[in-house]
Design a protein that fits this description.
The chain is of the alpha/beta class. It is about 25% helix and about 20% strand. It is built from 3 helices and 4 strands; from the N terminus they run E-H-E-H-E-E-H. The chain has a 4-stranded parallel β-sheet, with helices on one face. The longest helix has 10 residues. The radius of gyration is 15 Å and the shape is globular.
């Protein structure tokens, strides 16, 4: 059976991002990242989505020995079963709830 794709944002999900500090600062790996990707990769093909330079993300993944879990890196919204992002608001079908979530939104690291 072919695994479905999951898209995981890079900054703030895989690393200890705490605000933009330049394109070369990719921050340290977030604690538990390796275990998380290992578990997820057993049931999904993992695509990393980011606006960062792909070559820098590849270097970062290699540095932390995470490349083995990753199928793809993209800056495009591709078809996926699930998206994981530290800056997402989930649309629950109700615009009023969504608007309230937008007004109150802060990423976890702020």
């Amino acid at each position: 059976m072919r695994k479905k794709t999951i898209c995981i944002d890079f900054d703030g999900v895989l690393n200890n991002y705490n605000g933009w500090q330049g394109e070369d600062n990719l921050f340290e790996m977030k604690d538990g990242c390796d275990e998380f990707l290992n578990k997820v990769s057993k049931i999904y093909n993992i695509t990393i989505f980011t606006t960062r330079k792909k070559s820098l993300v590849v270097e970062w993944l290699n540095k932390y020995k995470l490349s083995k879990y990753i199928e793809n890196i993209t800056d495009k919204k591709i078809p996926a079963e699930i998206y994981i992002d530290d800056r997402a608001v989930n649309f629950d079908g109700n615009y009023d709830n969504t608007y309230s979530s937008i007004k109150e939104f802060l990423p976890y690291w702020k």
